[in-house]
Amino acid sequence: MRKQFVLFTFLLLGIVAMHADSMAEYRAFADTVRADVYSMDLPAFKVRDIPEKYRNESAVYKAIYENFDAKKKTGVGVRPGPMMLPTISRRARIEAGHLTRMLIHINDKAALEKYSEFDFGIDNKKNYFEGYEKNRHVMGARLIKTDNRIVDIDTSDFVEVEEGKTGENKRRKLAIPGLEVGDDIDVFFYTETRMQNVHPDPLTFYLKESAPILNYRIHCVIDDNLTAQYRILNGAPDFDVTRDDDGNYVLDLEIADISAKEPRLWYNQSQQSPQIKMYLFNRRNSSDFTPKSARFDGMQCNPPAEWIIGDRWDQDDWWLENGAVAGNLVMKNYLKDGHKIAKDIGKMVKDGRISVREGADYLYNLLCYLYIGNLARLNAHDFALQYNSLLKAHKFPIEAGLSSVPDQEPLYDVINLNNTIFFTSLQGDSSRYYFPPKNGIYSPSDMIPGANGRVAMMWRKPKERKKVPDGDNYFRLPATTLAKNRNITYVDAVIDGSVIDINRKEIHTGAAKRHAFPILSEEDVNEGYRKYLSRYGHTVSVKENKKRAAERMERYADGRKEQKEDFKNEIREYHGEYPSEFVDGKVTSLGINPDSTALVYELSYKMDNLVKRAGNNVILSLGKLFCDQLELLPSDRERDVDAYFGTPREYVTRISVDIPSGYTVNESSLSGLNRLILNESGAFSANTTLVSPDKLQVDIIKRYNKGVLPVSEWPEMLSVLDMASEWNNVSILLEKK
């Protein structure tokens, strides 16, 4: 026993010593990086004054400098060869470094609050088969005071935080002590990446910030033995490309005085900001898929989109044409009687008992049940191919199509095959475009948000593509309408002394559903799908042993507790504060039935601060029974770019208030509650009526008429937003009889 204890002690001491050595090595590395960065000769970082035209800006980026370098490396490894004998094999490696340095002038308290804390990544390593990716992160910060003193910040004083429901996102947060209005903060972030048999993540340079930029400079050095593909988007300028003495590609770009700013609200950075998006490949990588367009070394500026689309076809042609068996394998491997259920649906379609569309809708939801519940470990790309294969296996007349991922560049500007997304449609039926249910839960008849109106292309066999190039076959998917994206709210309020008892029902359709996703539990989702999938007499359940079934039931129990907090958070978002008492909450419809697409939930709770006594009378904060409205900042009112709402949408609210016995509504306060504004951008209306002596009813409509609002119509939208925000604060007087 003593020997075991001594052995354990030595082992523990060894681990502690190794950790100490590792930390010492990191500190030395970080100190070297900081010294190198702050010794750079960058004139833009020596500027002390800001132009007079920016004196009233909250913050000003005096300088931004980005430096990226990437080198091809080659390693060796051992893998099993003939007769399982060890064989030496080559490993494709890339070593890269990315520096982002910023000099930010703090001009008011809002900027002081915004830039008083930064976060950066945690060192990590990911292992893959015959591959890995290692990242080391360094942050540096120093203050330049108004008297030109330089104060270095101890960046080792960070706090590691876990974000997300399960703590899956880990970051380091660093507070900046001593920062004051009038100071400059010189901050940088550096990431060193070493990878083997892995292609790097894309690199995007956004040439626009939330504040003016006096100088933006980018410098890249890329090994000529690598493949670099980059796309210039949204009006960004191109690099000046040269070669150094070693043959490396040198990319330089410098822009002075970028006065345009990213708005705080309704702005889509990927769709609207000038940017340069770059992908790197080591074509010698045999473990990670290398697109056909990247299988030769060199620099490609704005490669034809048809090349990239061809990469996607090159990878997936077999699946789209011949992979019919794969869909049935998913059904067989993950669902009890899954293959039989899918076969029965196909037979019902063949016999005419259900329509082709009804069968396709059912199989879509059947696969969604596996995908959304993460039961079959499918990603969005896998889902699309499996669904296509599943329909092919049962002789559905289908066509496959391709668009770009929502919030990525349009298909005619696509720069990487992973920025594309497949969909399936039925031949001759333009009412359905079956996309993977990416980032949400939707009905088969819903067009997923971000896909409506997007450029797309239908898949054709390779021989057909040779005859007619892909560039001649773009089309636009249907645009969604206001009527398909609604949030309907019913509020029933009963005044009980100083407390209001509230029963609220929320009905979400189309893009409005995404506001409801946070309150859904795993149990809601699984049972909602099972209920829909039972419609043709089938009982659908996932294959699981007793242990996994018990774990699932335990997750359900935990989920019900978490959902209670989610409901409370939803109430806070609606009213601007938490309820004084939460009574009940439940999801009554998941919104996956194409005949009834609404996601519906109901809440019961009490609020204790919406009623005030005024002598014998009562003042009701009626506007607080309408969902909490956005309060615009002065800086939000000036805008030089379109407002990106995503989809047109409508919010319809009916508020019913029971008047307490012995009270009556003051007529003068009632007459001032109605509102109406209609214009090209949207609408707001509030119509208040006393439907009976003891019941007050308010009908409110708020509309965003366009998915993308032209900047010329922004003043009209402001009038709608202002009226809605103002109504949020109305009150009504209930007089004692």
TrEMBL record:
Keywords: Signal. The keyword Signal applies. Residues 1-20 form the signal peptide. InterPro entries: PLipase_C_Pinositol-sp_Y (IPR001711). Residues 259-310 form the PI-PLC Y-box domain. GO terms for molecular function: phosphatidylinositol-4,5-bisphosphate phospholipase C activity. Gene3D superfamilies: 2.60.40.3140. GO terms for biological process: intracellular signal transduction; lipid metabolic process. This is PI-PLC Y-box domain-containing protein. The lineage of its organism: Bacteria, Pseudomonadati, Bacteroidota, Bacteroidia, Bacteroidales.
